[in-house]
Amino acid sequence: MPISVRILQTELITHNVRHYRLEKPRDFRFAPGQATEVSIDKDGWRDQKRPFTFTSLQSDDTLEFTIKSYRDHPGVTNALWGLEAGDSLLLRDVWGTIQYKGPGTFIAGGAGVTPFIAILRDLNANGGLGGNRLIVSNKTEKDIILRDEFEAMAGLETLWTVTDDPGSSLLQERINREFLRQHISDFGQNFYLCGPDAMVKDLREALETLGASVDSVTWER
């Protein structure tokens, strides 16, 4: 049964991404990397559900989602952009298969980085980030989510690449098989993937051809 929770605060993260901090229901539990289906608690929106990952930690007093809004077409994320403190969202059962199995490389496309936020925050809080690497592709440099926070995490190596920002000083390459071959030296490690379905499928296949074990690759199934 859906639970209605009030928005306590919204915070702009990029030009089209916001944090939504919410009331945390009593005894509400989730693990880093898990998600729930969310809808807006208003007439006409309650049945329109979308999956979003928790970016807060279980130990936090509030819940947090970090959500990219697609402002160019009507829909749930566009409607979310218009919400403020005092509005309510509906949350459902917790689910998700992206859970931490040990040090490795996290690879994300755009907003696909969101399932990794709580995982890396949890590791950072407990001093366990050593041996982990985050590789993220975005269209432009201004699209990068929480860049400053990730770069400030001691022990986490970061690599940013952009695909449509010729003025940026960042790497200008798409993440594909050749990218993996050039920028990863150890294919015996753990890999965590999240992004558009086609990207994840291609990277899973590429990693396997490069020697990664199927069991070492984690993605949202």
TrEMBL record:
Name of one Pfam family that matches: NAD_binding_1
InterPro entries, alphabetized: FAD-bd_8 (IPR013112), FAD-bd_FR_type (IPR017927), FNR_nucleotide-bd (IPR039261), MRET (IPR050415), OxRdtase_FAD/NAD-bd (IPR001433), Riboflavin_synthase-like_b-brl (IPR017938)
All copies of domain FAD-binding FR-type, residue ranges: 1-101
Domain of life: Bacteria
One annotated GO molecular function: oxidoreductase activity
UniProt-recorded name of the protein: Flavodoxin reductase
Organism per entry: Devosia limi DSM 17137
